[in-house]
Design a protein that fits this description.
By secondary structure, this protein is an alpha+beta fold. Helix content is 25%, strand content 26%. The protein has 2 domains: 1-225 and 318-446, Rossmann fold (3-Layer(aba) Sandwich); 236-303, no CATH class. The chain contains 11 helices and 22 strands.
Length: 446
């Protein structure tokens, strides 16, 4: 269960932004959006969904990219650029860290990340500050400046550069089910002597010497419960057993039922590899004949098929699913229906969460989202991005936002910001005065 994510000096965000999924206690909104977890007598609450609005180039996708980048760094265990690996990743910055720092910052400022979540009745809070130079400074030697791990608000370790401080023996013993008790003092010496400036202590020395079980638990959460789809229009999912005779990934019956519910009239769908060297291709099956889905299905139908498995996985595992432009090509009723799955306590029994950004104002509805679930990203031209929530506005006086307010109307009249008044007419008038550009074979020629 994700509670909070934060980052600083990341792309268009110069100052720290905090993406919080902790409910605003001062607001009375939809109660079914609240997830609850009791740990050692302390109750934790989290939102089961959140939606992000803002104009193009405001920085909405940078929030999701920052989450994906931290996940990539933790999984590989170091902050060296990773250009030789993951060539097909949609998040280029996760492999080319010199793209991360704010491009208007002239000085070398640290990039900071922080994430807080609950796993197996344990509250994890991890913080990471890294020095990776200025924007596009490829030759700069990357360093971990600070790294900290908290369990249930207890500081387990604090790293400052090449100096390492672990919690005292009594504290480490407190979590003996997760942390090895034996030879702690020897472990401290080994950990300090093997620390590397560009390695994470969390997934290297701490994992290998003190807490293999704990770190494997964390890595499993990042792999399976922190599910991020960046640039979702390019996302493909393949599921089901492989039919060796046809070299196909067969979709389970329940996937076909879901797809048929929106009007797909084929006998079924499957991913089929035409030969040993080709990529699996989504196909619709008609009378045992496989036809490329791209030839007969709409973009929205294909995207929905690819999104179904992440949605099912998320609800089954109680994961956090974060999607860039989730609703692109989907009818709003499909999106609303999916949102309501997360809001339905009879279906969302495992505390799953859905987060996505959008341009569709129809979801600005107090019967669909709480005020603290609605986020905005604003950015003036040539300035820095700012993240805020609808719940940040006062409930009385000038500029107030009540639960009874017409969120969509107020957004369009710019009461909440994060919207731009755009007029293309003058630019197009100037363009059309010039000699024409001709469209030929999907390329522009002059």
């Amino acid at each position: 269960m994700l509670l909070e994510f934060r980052a600083k000096n990341y792309r268009s965000f110069k100052d720290e932004f905090v993406f919080s999924l902790i409910p605003d206690t001062g607001k009375k909104d939809l109660e079914y959006s609240i997830l609850q977890k009791n740990i050692n007598g302390k109750e934790y609450k989290a939102l089961c969904s959140s939606i992000v609005y803002g104009p193009n180039a405001a920085g909405k996708s940078n929030i999701i990219e920052a989450m994906d980048t931290l996940k990539a760094i933790i999984k590989r265990g170091h902050i060296s650029s990773n250009k030789s690996l993951n060539k097909r990743t949609s998040n280029i910055a996760s492999d080319n860290l010199e793209l991360i720092p704010n491009n208007q910052e002239k000085e070398r400022k640290p990039v900071s990340f922080g994430i807080k979540f609950i796993i197996n009745n344990v509250v994890i809070n991890y913080k990471l500050d890294i020095s990776i130079g200025r924007f596009l400074e490829e030759s700069y030697m990357h360093r971990v400046l600070k790294e900290a791990l908290y369990i249930n608000d207890d500081l387990i370790f604090l790293r400052s550069g090449m100096k390492l401080n672990l919690g005292d023996d009594a504290l480490l013993t407190k979590y003996k089910q997760l942390i090895i008790e034996k030879n702690i003092n020897i472990g401290r010496i080994i950990a300090a002597s093997t620390l590397k400036y560009d390695d994470l202590f969390l997934t290297n020395g701490f994992k290998n010497i003190f807490a293999p079980k704990l770190v494997e638990l964390l890595l499993d959460w990042f792999n399976n419960n922190f599910f991020i789809i960046y640039h979702s229009e390019n996302y493909k999912s393949m599921i089901g057993p492989v039919d060796k005779d046809s070299n196909a990934f067969i979709m389970p019956d329940y996937i076909n039922k879901l797809v048929n519910s929106i009007g797909l009239n084929s006998n079924g769908i499957a991913y089929i590899r035409r030969d040993e060297n080709s990529e699996p291709e989504l196909c619709s099956i008609f009378n045992k004949v496989a036809i490329s889905a791209e030839a007969i299905e709409s973009c929205g139908t294909i995207r929905l098929i690819n999104m179904l498995m992440p949605l099912i996985h998320t609800l089954q595992q109680g994961a956090a699913l974060i999607i860039d432009e989730f609703d692109c090509s989907f009818h709003p009723m499909i999106v609303m229906n999916i949102i309501n799955l997360f809001h339905n306590p009879d279906i969302n029994t495992n505390n799953a969460q859905l987060i996505f950004n959008t341009h569709n104002p129809i979801f600005l509805n107090n019967e669909l989202f709480r005020r603290d679930e609605i986020k905005f990203v604003d950015r003036e031209y040539d300035q820095f991005s700012e993240l805020y929530s609808l719940a940040d506005f006062p409930t009385s006086g000038k500029g107030s936002v009540r639960n009874s307010s017409n969120f969509m109307k107020n957004y369009f009249i710019s009461r909440y910001g994060a919207i731009k008044d755009i007029d293309f007419a003058p630019i197009f008038k100037e363009i059309l005065k010039r000699p024409g550009y001709k469209l030929k074979n999907t390329t522009y020629t002059r």
